[in-house]
Amino acid sequence: MSRRGGTRIRPTKKPVVVLAGEDRTDRLALRVLLEEFCPDMRGRIVEINDKVRLHQATGATLTARAETLASKVRARAVRDDTSVACVFVHEDLDKADSDDYPVIRERVQKALEAALGAAHYALSVSEIEAWLLLFPDALSALASSWSVPAKHRGKDTGRLPDPKKILMNEVSGSGRRYRESDAPDVLAQAVKLGLLAKPVGRNRSFDQMRTDAVQCCAEHLKQKGT
Question: How far is CA 63 from the centre of its chain?
Fold first, then answer.
């Protein structure tokens, strides 16, 4: 699966979908998922490289950060001589799912919508590695020595306090150890094996991201031309 992307790559279709996130690995992981949940996004996704820092912000600080992001999105649209269909902003919550999750997500979501319009806040709980644990067969397909322990299968992976540690110490163990840069490749394996529609367990932030991708596709990309 191609990993082409970044601010230097011009889209081949219009309007574009703008993707922002904590780092390039997370953006690549989101790109894999978005293009699978909405094939019409292929050739449209462009990235903003600036680090996102939203989930701990409130009030005027949050508004200012959302407006800064919006200005970069508008500049990218001008650069590519196109319009923006929708914007996806990814960030890790960095703690397990709890009653705080929907409150934080809604606060940032409203700020992004005010600044950008059709924006979707992909706040992963507790981190993007929790999404990977939903697909044990994809992990094993990437590295044959990797195996998700039974105690972590079929569970709410958003409730796990440190999924990255589980991947490094329990799934990959002493052999080829999991690295953060493996995340897009794990998800690419999940796509290849047809696993995204049948996660082993649950994670409401993953479900929300899938819902948002489908919504963007239906409302802003269908019959929008090429």
Answer: 22
Closest CA to 48 of 85, 13, 88: 88
Bridge-based pairing state of the strands 16-20 and 84-92: parallel
Q: Which two tokens stand for residue 24?
A: 């390039």
In degrees, rounded to 5, the angle at the alpha carbon of residue 189 between the alpha carbons of residues 185 and 193 is 170
Closest CA to 11 of 76, 69, 70, 73: 76
- Give the residue ranges of DSSP H helices in the chain: 24-37, 59-79, 100-116, 128-132, 136-142, 163-166, 183-192, 204-216
Torsion (CA) 132, 172, 143, 197 in degrees, nearest 10: -20
Cα-based distances in Å from 83 to 1, 6, 87, 106, 151 = 26, 17, 11, 25, 47
Cβ-contact 87, 122 below 8 angstroms: no
Both tokens of residue 106? 């809604």
Q: Mean pLDDT in runs of 10 for the chain (226 residues)? A: 49 96 94 97 94 95 97 95 97 96 98 97 97 98 96 97 96 90 98 97 98 97 62
- CB count within 10 Å of CB 57 equals 17
pTM (2 d.p.): 0.93
